[in-house]
Design goal:
Mean pLDDT: 91
Structural class: alpha/beta
CATH class of the domain at 61-193: Alpha Beta
Strand content: 15-25%
CATH superfamily of the domain at 61-193: FAD/NAD(P)-binding domain
Radius of gyration: 22 Å
Shape: globular
């Protein structure tokens, strides 16, 4: 709960829905009325990006919250429960082979056999399908790691379709750009994110996210900061947009908190240097691959590192009490 994070601090918490940000009038329009601001930090996260693909939003689920994950689990269990004993199991398609889609495919590939056995269904040659528009899954990763992930998923009976974007979605499944049809009883869309719709239209956008300057200001606004998935930060080396990532959001939060204090006290502002430290993707309970600070890792080493990173993150926001789950 938030009380563990903000308890005892001089923070006023209000629960309301942000409907729109009017940057020119310097107000946040909420479900409880307008809230003026002197300094604003936009940390609204993201919404699914459907790229205008016909029928996709209406015929897919997304994995962007704990509640969404529970709904996906409920729907999958319902589909398997309704399938007749001895029949072929329902077909699950994960569309989008980035970080989220690849991890999800790995987890499902280990869970689906349990469902097949539990409901007495026939095991098919492939358990589910992972679709990615780019030539390899995990686009932007080291090609060797991408190929390694594909091999691990293939060994778990995941059908991988790459280099063929989704053109249209329906209740029957997906039509790809090549004309290929993929039958699906449940499509899970993990193909991209865009800025939360509540942000409004006052900001300069890059790839669906708010462009920021070197100090994490929204471009053109010195009193508005943006952190996390809502922001489009550029890699300090390549100049390309960095992908949404927790470690990037945390680094931005440190810079923004410093700069807000500096702007009030007249101190020196700190620049945010976009840097991709690396990522680790888990592919079920036994497999993981990744790269941190230029060091490639796999197997137990990668899994242990990911667990340590998670524990460090929990400690960073709530200390030992939150880490241990103390009330």
């Amino acid at each position: 709960p938030l009380s563990k994070v903000i308890g005892g601090k001089r923070i006023e918490f209000r629960r309301m829905r942000v409907e729109r940000i009017d940057a020119h009038r310097r107000v946040v329009i909420t479900s409880e009325g307008e809230m003026p601001f002197d300094i604003l930090v936009i940390a609204l996260g993201s919404s699914p990006q459907y790229y205008g693909i016909e029928g996709l939003e209406e015929n897919s689920l997304v994995l962007n919250s704990y509640e969404a994950a529970r709904e996906i689990r409920r729907r999958i269990e319902e589909l398997f429960r309704e399938a007749g004993r001895g029949e072929t199991p329902p077909r699950i398609v994960v569309a989008g082979g980035g970080f989220t889609g690849t991890e999800l495919a790995g987890e499902l590939a280990e869970w689906i056999p349990t469902l097949i056995e539990g409901y007495g269904l026939r095991r098919p040659d492939s358990l589910l399908t992972l679709v990615e528009a780019m030539p390899h899954i995990l686009p932007g990763w080291n090609p060797e790691l991408s190929r390694m992930a594909e091999e691990i998923l293939a060994s778990k009976s995941v059908e991988i379709v790459t280099g063929d974007p989704v053109k249209r979605a329906s209740r029957e499944g997906l039509e790809l750009k090549s004309g290929r049809m993929i039958h699906s009883d449940l499509t899970i869309w993990t193909g991209g994110v865009t800025c939360n719709r509540a942000v409004g239209g006052d900001f300069e956008m890059v790839k669906g996210r708010i462009r920021i300057d070197d100090y994490c200001h929204a471009w053109g606004y010195e009193d508005i900061y943006v952190v996390g998935d809502a922001s489009c930060a550029l890699d300090g080396e390549t100049g390309k947009p960095l992908p949404p990532s927790a470690h990037i959001a945390m680094a931005q939060a440190d810079v923004v908190s410093h700069n807000i204090y500096a702007s009030i006290t007249g101190g020196e502002m700190r620049r945010y240097i976009g840097e991709r430290v690396g990522e680790i993707v888990t592919l079920g309970r036994r497999h993981a691959i990744g790269e941190l600070w230029g060091i490639r890792m796999k197997g137990l080493t990668a899994r242990v590192m990911k667990k340590l990173i998670h524990l460090w993150y929990v400690h960073s926001i709530g200390g030992v009490k939150l880490l241990l789950g103390d009330p």
